[in-house]
Amino acid sequence: EKTVGLMDLVGEYEFNDVYDDIIQYTIALLNAKKMLIQAKANVIKESDRIVLLIDNYVTSLEQAFADKNTTAAKAILNQIMVEKI
Question: How many domains does the chain have?
Fold first, then answer.
């Protein structure tokens, strides 16, 4: 049995409503994660680096979304999964 990943599911689609939703949800989740990290900042020593990283991902995803750049969006989503943010 082959494991199906997120990118396998969306890879066949053009830049459409499904992809738009995935990007918007990812941005919302990253922003929520950032707020949680900032709330626990005194516990997490790397919080500043992580918050900056999240801000960079959010900015990049928002730009890819605005540009309707599927390739960039896929690369960013893959990087987020690799980083395990």
Answer: 1
Q: 19 is in which domain, residue-wise?
A: 6-83
| pTM score | 0.54
Walk along the chain (85 residues) in steps of 10 and give the mean pLDDT of each run.
57 63 85 81 69 89 90 88 76
Cβ–Cβ contacts within 10 Å for residue 40, how many? Answer: 10
- The answer to whether residue 1 is domain-embedded is no
Q: What are the Cα distances from residue 48, in Å, to 4, 36, 38, 82?
A: 33, 12, 8, 19
pLDDT in the model for residue 60: 93
What's the rounded Cα separation, in Å, for the pair 2 and 43? 39
